[in-house]
């Protein structure tokens, strides 16, 4: 058994926090051998001391005020597992790092909004900031990109970054069940954020994408520049149409760096995509995540595994603790924060691709002609067109797939149709994954 002890304070005892305790208890010997030290849980806290969490916490020191942990000389590492971009999590993180204590966190919202500030605090105070669990749960995606691809110029990074929305889409696809019903199940399984709109509106995936993009492109983290759309508007009919056309719908995050003559631009987007069934991402189901990184020497790398849930997320948290125990003090964003380059956001309009468009229209003569005229005026040609029969609310679903065109042309089509009395509800655009 290792003779030295590294003491951690765990803040937050929900899905991830209790998972971390279970893992450290069950794999204690192995972890001690691998890290060269015994990892001891020196203090714990959460909102409610008396809640039954299914783990016996009686042997651990309870601290009422989490901020005391950041001042506690007995603790070497603070493990922040409460969540939230600002508020207590951020206060705790800053205090711990300022005091030279290393911080391990699963909090992507906080890293996406304040990661650079926290990384600078870590640099200044000789502490480590590790956040493997914050992106793609149990997959070592941060380590994979920060270290595994360090020698490469990354051309593009993309993937399925939110377990809850992938669980919803893939379960709706296979079972035909209702959106709300499947979301409730994902929440019960511990996959969803405290506010599940972060999952279904693409915000959680955008947090993760912005972090990955900073690592991949050595650029300053810029969450506000991620164009974000979630899965709320996707209907069972879209999933069925996609299936008939040979695709599955997945919520993807995609980032690319465009190096111009003078400056670099960064394209970052979270959006539903039609993924060809033959593409590896089409077969990523349930809460599984997958990250594709394309390096100029490595070629395409695919990291895949559980993106949410107690066990996989705890695995990533404890891997970070072990890394710190081993003395790994590498900068949080692979290089000193000052060395990261600012990149202006790239516009999407010039992007070329195919798109799935779905309209809900009034069942009256001339509607289809109106849509096709708007497409013609924007010079968008149609590869396939499906007109479905009338639904109970008298709407008719018209879905189509375009030939390759610039996204600005699709936008021009929708602009021309905006306000038309023939359209019942907002049209839906789903990009089709090309040779990304
Ligand atoms: N659940 C998952 O699959 C994953 C979660 N994460 C992240 O891990 C973090 C924790 O997530 P979960 O464990 O799912 O959340 P949870 O809601 O299950 O647990 C949160 C815990 O923090 C405590 N807490 C919240 N605010 C507090 C406060 N002001 N003072 C003291 N304690 C407070 C709660 O009492 C609870 O014990 C979040 O940042 C989340 O985004 C990351 C990857 C996967
Ligand atoms: N809510 C998140 C949890 C992991 O990050 C998700 O569903 O992916
Ligand atoms: Na991870």
UniProtKB/TrEMBL annotation:
Every copy of the ACT domain together lies at 356-428
InterPro entries, alphabetically? ACT-like_dom_sf, ACT_dom, Asp/hSer_DH_NAD-bd, HDH, HDH_cat, HDH_CS, NAD(P)-bd_dom_sf
Give the annotated active site: 208 (proton donor)
Q: Where does L-homoserine bind?
A: 193
Keywords, in A-Z order: Amino-acid biosynthesis, Methionine biosynthesis, NADP, Oxidoreductase, Threonine biosynthesis
Gene Ontology molecular-function annotations: homoserine dehydrogenase activity; NADP binding
Looking up SUPFAM superfamilies in the UniProt record yields:
ACT-like, Glyceraldehyde-3-phosphate dehydrogenase-like, C-terminal domain, NAD(P)-binding Rossmann-fold domains
GO BP terms, alphabetized: methionine biosynthetic process; threonine biosynthetic process
Pathway, per UniProt?
Answer: Amino-acid biosynthesis; L-threonine biosynthesis; L-threonine from L-aspartate: step 3/5; Amino-acid biosynthesis; L-methionine biosynthesis via de novo pathway; L-homoserine from L-aspartate: step 3/3
Highest taxon, organism lineage: Bacteria
Identify the enzyme class: oxidoreductase
- Binding of NADP(+): at which residues? 11-18
An example Pfam family from this entry, by short name, is NAD_binding_3
Annotated EC: 1.1.1.3
Residues at which NADPH binds = 108
Concerning its family, UniProt says: Belongs to the homoserine dehydrogenase family.
Question: Can you name this protein?
Answer: Homoserine dehydrogenase
């Amino acid at each position: 058994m290792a003779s030295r002890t590294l003491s951690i304070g765990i803040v937050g005892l929900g899905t991830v926090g209790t998972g971390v305790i279970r893992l450290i208890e069950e794999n204690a010997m192995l972890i001690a051998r691998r890290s060269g030290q015994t990892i001891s849980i020196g203090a714990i806290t959460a909102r409610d001391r008396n809640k039954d969490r299914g783990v016996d916490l009686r042997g651990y020191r309870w601290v009422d005020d989490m901020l005391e942990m950041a001042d506690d000389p007995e603790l070497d590492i603070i493990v922040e597992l409460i969540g939230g971009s600002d508020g207590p999590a951020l206060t705790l993180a800053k205090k711990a790092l300022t005091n030279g204590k290393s911080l391990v966190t699963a909090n992507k919202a906080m890293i996406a909004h304040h990661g650079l500030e926290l990384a600078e605090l870590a640099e200044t105070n000789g502490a480590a900031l590790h956040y493997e669990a914050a992106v793609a749960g149990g997959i070592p995606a941060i380590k994979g990109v920060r270290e595994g691809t360090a020698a490469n110029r990354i051309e593009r990074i993309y993937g399925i970054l939110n377990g809850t929305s992938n669980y919803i889409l893939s379960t709706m696809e296979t079972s035909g069940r209702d959106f709300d019903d499947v979301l409730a199940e994902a929440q019960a399984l511990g996959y969803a954020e405290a506010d599940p709109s972060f999952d279904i509106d693409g915000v959680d995936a955008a947090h993760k994408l912005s972090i990955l993009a900073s690592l991949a492109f050595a650029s300053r983290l810029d969450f506000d520049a991620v164009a974000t759309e979630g899965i709320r508007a996707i209907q069972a009919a879209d999933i069925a149409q996609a299936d008939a056309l040979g695709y599955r719908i997945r919520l993807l995050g995609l980032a690319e760096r465009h190096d111009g003559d003078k400056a670099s631009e960064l394209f970052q987007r979270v959006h539903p995509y039609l993924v060809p069934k033959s593409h590896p991402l089409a077969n990523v189901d349930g809460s599984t995540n997958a990250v594709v990184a394309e390096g100029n020497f490595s070629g395409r790398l695919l990291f895949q595994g559980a993106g949410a849930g107690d066990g996989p997320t705890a695995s990533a948290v404890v891997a970070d603790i072990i890394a710190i125990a081993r003395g790994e003090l590498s900068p949080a964003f692979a290089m000193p924060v000052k060395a990261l380059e600012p990149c202006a956001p790239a516009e999407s309009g010039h992007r070329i691709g195919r798109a799935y468009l779905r309209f809900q229209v009034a069942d009256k003569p001339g509607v289809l002609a109106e849509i096709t005229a708007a497409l013609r005026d924007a010079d968008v040609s149609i590869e396939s067109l499906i007109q479905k029969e009338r639904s109970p609310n008298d709407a008719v679903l018209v879905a189509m797939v375009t030939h390759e065109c610039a996204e600005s042309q699709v936008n021009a089509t929708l602009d021309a149709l905006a306000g038309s009395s023939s359209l019942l509800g907002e049209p839906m655009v789903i990009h089709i994954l090309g040779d990304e």
